[in-house]
Amino acid sequence: MSQRNFKTIDLANFQQRKESIVKDIMTAATEQGFFYVINHGISSDEIQSMFETGRRFFALPDSTKAKYPLDVPRNAGWEKFAQLRPQTGLPDLKESMQLAFHHIPDLWPNQQDAPNFQNNVQCFMEQCNRVSQQLLECFALGLGFPEDFFTRCHDISQPDALNSLRFQHYFDLKGTVFDASQFTPTKLDAVEECGSLVTSEDVNDYYRAGPHTDPDTLTLLFQNNPGHDALEACQGRNDVTQFNQGTHWLPLCPQKDELVCNIGDMLMRWSDDQLKSNFHRVKRPEVDLSSRYTIAYFTQANKSALIQGRTKYTEPLTAGDFLRQAMERNHQRVKMLIDQRHARKQLEQQQLEQQQLRLEEDDNDEDHSVDYRNYHHHHLHLPSSSSPPPTTTSQQPTTLAPVLAI
Ligand SMILES: O=C(O)CCC(=O)C(=O)O
Ligand SMILES: [Fe+2]
Fold first, then answer.
1. Contact of 158 with 177, CB cutoff 8 Å
2. ipTM of this model?
3. Residue 386 maps to a domain
4. Nearest CA to ligand 1 atom 1
5. Which Gene3D superfamilies match (predicted)?
6. Is there a contact between 87 and 205 (Cβ–Cβ < 8 Å)?
7. Ligand 1: distance of its center to the CA of 40 in Å?
8. Overall average pLDDT of the 258-285 stretch
9. For a pocket test of ligand 1, which of 280, 283, 284 has the largest count of ligand atoms closer than 8 A to its C-beta?
């Protein structure tokens, strides 16, 4: 555990070993909220073939993928640079394709664009669901609910099921596009459309996946980079209603075919904050800049299911309302961050103009022997992106790209 930072849950002989699995999983979920899962029953071949399916889809031209645009209410479709994170107000450096169990006939890539995609992905989603059901049974037992308490409200046979699978492609960052000193916004047009006013000073604020918690019950994550420590988790979230994140991040290093699982906000609320939905992030890599692919299976309660804690969050809330409220909170926060960025840019611009004026005055002073013409390029101190943003709000209204449910 020390090297790998997180506990490993072994699902072998599930029925016979259930009692000890429940004990292990409750400790892992209470202490860390993240754990590895082995012997989950999804074969190496199936996992590899799913990564291939995802890679082939992402290799299609954007114009083809855009035939299946993300539809937030239906939890499905393709997006690129559009997932804004409430901790940064910036989009992830990725594209993703999300699939749901129901109501998305128009969002499944057709046979011509992606042969057998729908069949293969649906089979895989069912496999993921089987694993997620086993874990849900353990959580129900561990929290003192009937064994089928959670599986009944995460029922994919129901039309309002919200479980979904998401392919994620974090972009190849080779080249100079994300080098702050040579930054050109060409590849980031979409980001600018989000209203995030990208300039070279912002580049360091970008993550592959910005710090966030998952609003679902439980996330199963397949990574295809054995031992690669790209995903990091932060310990110690005490209250599911809080945005505060800590400062101590631990890398996750799954072995080949191991799952990384994490508790989401729904289960944290359901367990009265006992099980931790902790912040996690994927930083921009410093060495291996090649593309990174992951597949996430989000286990979310059916839209009409009631989420009700037993001691702390006693008022019942449907999963649909829970997600709506989470999105609204995220949206407000992202809007605030974008407005602050707007204001900061305006301030920077004003400072630049004032500096320029002063330099011009100096230039006109014939007593000066030093050439100050390029002074501001080298010495002007701009507020860095880590400086506290000014509190003034921008005059310009902010337009927002959709903030995803997850
Ligand atoms: O791709 C990863 O490693 C993490 C993705 C993630 O946290 C998410 O999609 O919610
Ligand atoms: Fe996540």
1. no
2. 0.99
3. no
4. 294
5. B-lactam Antibiotic, Isopenicillin N Synthase, Chain
6. no
7. 19
8. 96
9. 280
Give me the long-range contacts of 21-28 (CB less than 8 A, separation at least 24): 21/138, 22/138, 22/141, 22/142, 23/142, 25/135, 25/138, 25/139, 25/142, 26/138, 26/139, 26/142, 26/275
296 Cβ below 6 A of ligand 1: yes
397 CA distance to ligand 1 middle (Å): 31
Asked if residue 49 belongs to a domain, the reply is yes
109 alpha carbon – ligand 1 mean position (Å): 22
Cβ of residue 165 lying under 6 Å from some atom of ligand 1: no
Q: Is there a domain that residue 233 lies in?
A: yes
Asked if pLDDT for residue 111 goes beyond 50, the answer is: yes
Q: Is the CB of 280 under 6 A from ligand 1?
A: yes
The answer to whether position 365 is within a domain reads no
Read off the CATH number of the domain in which 195 is found: 2.60.120.330
Distance 282 CA to ligand 2 centre (A): 9
Surrounding residues of ion ligand 2, Cβ less than 5 A: 214
Q: Which residue's C-alpha comes closest to atom 6 of ligand 1?
A: 209
- The domain total for the chain is 1
Domain housing 129:
8-334
Give pLDDT tens digits for 52-110: 999 999 999 989 999 999 998 898 999 988 888 888 888 888 899 999 999 999 999 99
93 CA to centre of ligand 1 in angstroms: 12
Is the confidence at residue 2, as pLDDT, over 60? no
